[in-house]
Amino acid sequence: MLFELKKLVIENTNNSGNELVLNIYPNPTTSIITVALGNIIRQNMQFELVDIFGQSVIKKYLENKIIKFDFNLEYLEDGLYFLKISEPLGLIHSGKIVKISVF
User: What range defines the domain where residue 37 resides?
Assistant: First the structure.
């Protein structure tokens, strides 16, 4: 099975005027995934990576206004994972990430 590595851009908007611009790349990934928070720079955000069984494999809290950071997925098994981004008021984004081995 071959995957073509491309940049995934996820954009969602809501009617409150707070547009969500979020870049997650590369996806699929072999090790490092970058999350770039375009204009959703908020405090006290939580990023959680969950496996297909619902088990949390990575949880990261951002107290300061950070716009870009990396997750190291090198030690995880190949497969499908779900990224959930939330703040104290609730979930603001969820998406899928695919971890693959180097061929």
Answer: 8-99
Q: How many domains does the chain have?
A: 1
Give per-residue pLDDT as tens, 38-95.
766 667 888 999 999 999 999 998 877 777 889 899 999 999 999 998 888 887 788 8
Model confidence pTM above 0.90 = no
Confidence (pLDDT) at 2: 45
In a domain, 2, yes or no: no
**Burial call 66-78: b when 16+ CB within 10 Å, e when fewer:** eeeeebebeebee
